[in-house]
Structure formats: C-alpha cells, structure tokens
Amino acid sequence: MSTVSMQQLAAPSGLMSLALFLVAVAVLAMLAGGFWLGNRVKYHESDRPRPEEQPKLPPEGPVREVLENRESEEIPQVPKGGRPLTPYELGNQQTRPSTSKDRPRWSKGSSGSFGGGGLGAH
C-alpha cells in the first residue's frame, strides 16, 4: 500500500462528518424533548398545599413515643394425633400489653441473632 492510498483512508469522510452531526442533533432533540415532557408533567400536577392546608399539631401537643412490652397470643395446642395448623388457619395474632416492665434480654452468651457469628449459649 502506498502512502497516497493511506492518506486517502485517513482523510475525513464527508459522510462520516454528516453522520456524527446527525447523531449530535438527535441527542440534543432527545434532551429538549425530555425537558419539554418534564415541564408538561409538572404543569398537570396538583398545586402545593397552602400554609393553612398544612397539618396541625393536636391540641394536647406533639405525640410522644410510648414504650411498653407486648405479649402475643398463645398459639393453640395441636391435639394428639391432629394435624398442625397452617399460618392461614391461625389468622391474625393479636398482642396485648405485658404486665412485666422488664425489658426482654437475650440469653447470656448469645448474639441475639441467627448467624450472628457468636459462639452462642454453651
């Protein structure tokens, strides 16, 4: 291959320049369309609430956190020779306030979680 043919290959092609220009125009058109669509969606949204429409504190003041221990209902015992109940048959298990005020603690030597990496209770 001679140097003349190499120069012709390396010379910028008018078709390649046109293709790059069209790609740039397409990207700009997509960006402009995105802004237009975003403004259109924002225009159709409901207005922001006015200050008088904002939520108000209750008359007794802010609600505080209530700390209490809860006990769950007992799961019904399976009669001898009977089949165990499925979760769907148990229904919603309710809780009630506990009479004990002591916080439940994990057993000594236990990490308190499954797979916590501890040695566990021995």
Describe this structure in words.
This protein has 122 residues and is mostly helical. Helices cover 35% and strands 5% of the residues. The protein is built from three helices and two strands, in the order ααβαβ. The chain has helices spanning 3-10, 14-44, 87-90, and strands at 70-72, 95-97. A two-stranded antiparallel ribbon has the order 1-2. The longest helix has 31 residues, at 14-44. The radius of gyration is 36 Å and the shape is elongated. The protein starts with a helix and ends in a 25-residue tail after the last strand. The mean pLDDT is 80.
Principal-axes geometry comes out as: elongated
Widest sheet, order of strands: 1-2
Which structural class fits the helix and strand makeup? Answer: mainly alpha
Q: Segments where pLDDT lies below 50 for 5+ residues?
A: none
- Total count of strands: 2
**How many H/I helices?**
3
Strand percent estimate: under 5%
Question: Can you tag this structure with a few keywords?
Answer:
single chain, 122 residues, mainly alpha, two-stranded antiparallel sheet, 2 strands, elongated
